[in-house]
Amino acid sequence: MSDHLAPEAKRCTEPTRTQAIQEITATLFAPVRDPRYTFRVTVVDDPLVNALAAPGGYVVVLRGLLEQTQSADELAGVLAHEFQHILLRHATRALLRHASTRLLLSGLTGDMSGAMVYGLEGARILGELRYGRKDEEEADREGLRMLLAAGLDPSGMIAFFETLRKTQGKGLILPQYLSTHPSTDQRVERLRSLAPPAKSITARLLPGRDWRDIRNICQVTGGLVR
């Protein structure tokens, strides 16, 4: 599924900037004793504002979303949300609900032709998926707790949702998790109520790095920004 969601030809893999994104992931999981999976974040050159969580620890971030973030803390908030969809098995349950019996049997039996179809169908389901309100609220809440456990500033998560709220109605295609309930206004207010005072922040992401440079990872060719 990850291969279909993030075709190799569209992956943005400039090493220095990729490492910076990996550092954000490592910081988020530093306090987690048993993360269950090896989490992988792949950036794809696609203008849509979206991020997708696939079972097994795979998260795909589209260029359009990355370019909307104003700081490493904002991306950390998005990733924490997506990681929770995996850790809480929302993505797995959604696939089980939507996939046909034939495809599930193909995946279980290891039939190669069926597995390829299963990967395509699974990627399609994840790409069109709208989680229910309960799953979204749980991913928000546990994602915020993940940020706090890592000593990170949860205001980045809130700021990202506020940025997207301001763009609604301006022709921007929003992430699937903003095109369903709860409303963006409700989500921002709930996260604000859950966030503690700033004095709880003990970690800084990518000190000394220019986030505007890192988020341009898909524009880099031969070490230069296009």
Beta-strand percent range: 5-15%
- The total count of strands amounts to 5
What is the total number of structural domains?
1
Number of helical stretches of at least 4 residues: 11
Rg computed from alpha carbons, rounded to a whole number of angstroms: 17 Å
Enumerate the strands of the largest sheet in spatial order, edge to edge or round the barrel: 1-3-2
Largest sheet descriptor = 3 strands, mixed
Could you state the oligomeric state of the chains shown?
single chain
Keywords for this entry:
single chain; mainly alpha; 54% helix
Task: Give the gist of this structure.
It contains eleven helices and five strands, in the order ααβββαααααααααββ. It is mainly α. The protein has one domain (about 1-225).
Describe the structure.
- The chain is mainly alpha-helical.
- The chain has one domain (2-225).
- The chain contains eleven helices and five strands; from the N terminus they run ααβββαααααααααββ.
- The strands form two sheets. It has a three-stranded mixed β-sheet, sandwiched between helices.
- Helix 4 packs across helix 9 (155-167), helix 6 (101-109) packs across helix 7 (112-128) and helix 9 runs antiparallel to helix 10.
- The longest helix is centred in the middle third of the chain and has 17 residues, at 112-128.
- The protein is globular and about 55 Å long.
